[in-house]
Design brief:
Distance between the termini: 65 Å
Structural class: mainly alpha
Order of helices and strands: HHHHHEEHHHHHHHHHH
Helix content: over 70%
Shape: globular
Number of strands: 2
């Protein structure tokens, strides 16, 4: 028993749980599926206990924790979400004076609240693991070797996920990776295209940073440069095929900026021969990316960007041809998205101090549309 406890609170066990919690949300529906959120909270709670035990063994690290403003801000935000969950539960009532349906005040009107307690609990299931990861990264992952290992693990995981899902996308467009059948466009384990897109954009920034670091390191090795180049290419493909226009635009900006920075560093730090070699490598990588994206996702990209400039009649023709969904056209023609943005602003103006709680727009939009 003593041996098990010593292993449970050992340094290796803490790092293993940290890496597990770091990678779990990306592989299991992006952390957004309620059915798979509970293990994330359990892992986070155990990791937090391990970090507390580790820090209280080292007085200097404990003092650093108590002086960290990020920890206090995170604890304050979690306290806000906890109060919101405790004070949740607003019922739909009929306002006889205005003759409209409204949500009544919570039990304590002067405290943060949410419409449904389950929605507030979901906010806690998201942000508690995020807080634990941030606190662990700032105070338990201390050495430069551990930090670099963490960044490499994140990039490797993202590149593997992007590669598997690109293969899935090529072989069977309509299939959620190994979990839930889908009748709509789906890429990666994320349930929402913009979630997948921004995740791969972040990982692309990290991969390219590691690529530049390895290329200009004093101990640079060709193997590391090649592997990180492959990882960056895979992650860029993931951002491209995630069906998010914003993610694709950002990914292209990041990739071009990184290539220019790579060439600039080569000009200032390398000989003329090495500069020509590295500049050629950067151009070759950009051309390879263009070839892969254009060859694999040309139709998909034309659909995504072409729909921005269609007239209403052209959109109807695209629905008839089956190239876009009817729901997309209805949203565009009726201005549903613009209307929902206006409703969100109105809800915020009525709850300007604490907000209306997680997922409040789903419940309250109908009451504001009546106006």
């Amino acid at each position: 028993m003593l041996t098990f406890c010593s292993f449970l609170f050992s340094r290796r066990s803490t790092l293993a749980l940290f890496y597990l919690l770091l990678l779990y949300p990306a592989w299991i529906r992006g952390g957004t599926r309620i059915a798979v959120q509970f293990p994330m909270v359990c892992i986070a709670a155990l990791l937090l206990l391990q970090v507390i035990v580790y820090l209280f063994r080292k007085p200097e690290l404990r003092r650093a924790l108590f002086r960290d403003p990020v920890v206090y801000l995170g604890a304050l935000f979690l306290s806000f979400l906890l109060v919101q969950w405790w004070n949740a539960g607003r019922e739909l009532i009929l306002d006889w004076e205005g003759m409209k349906w409204v949500y009544g005040a919570p039990s304590h009107a002067w405290l943060p609240s949410a419409i449904k307690r389950a929605d507030a609990a979901e906010m806690l299931r998201w942000f508690f693991p995020a807080f634990v990861l941030i606190a662990t990264m700032r105070h338990a992952v201390r050495t430069s070797r551990e930090v670099k290992l963490t960044l490499n693990i994140m990039c490797t995981s993202a590149s593997i996920l992007a590669s598997l899902c690109a293969g899935q996308w090529l072989l069977a467009r309509i299939w959620a990776i190994g979990l839930v059948p889908s009748e709509s466009y789906c890429f990666t384990s994320f349930g929402y295209a913009n979630h997948a897109g921004i995740y791969f954009v972040f990982m692309l920034c990290l991969s390219l940073g590691l690529l530049v670091d390895s290329a200009f390191s004093k101990r640079a090795r060709s193997r590391d440069v090649i592997l990180r180049s492959i990882a960056s290419l895979a992650v860029f493909i993931g951002a491209t095929l995630s069906a998010s226009r914003a993610a694709l635009i950002l990914a292209c900006m990041v990739l071009v900026g990184a290539a220019l920075y790579f060439v600039w560093l080569s000009w200032h730090r390398c000989s003329k021969v090495a500069f020509v070699n590295r500049a050629s490598s950067a151009v070759a990588m950009l051309l390879l990316v263009l070839f892969v994206v254009h060859g694999a996702g040309r139709d998909h990209l034309q659909e995504e960007f072409g729909s921005l400039f269609d007239s209403e009649s052209a959109r109807v023709e695209r629905v008839a041809a089956g190239s876009v969904s009817k729901a997309f056209i209805e949203d565009s023609m009726l201005g549903v998205r613009v209307l929902l943005r206006e409703v969100a602003v109105d809800i915020w103006r009525d709850h300007i101090w604490f907000g209306a709680g997680g997922w409040s727009q789903c419940h309250m939009a109908g009451t504001y549309l009546d106006e």
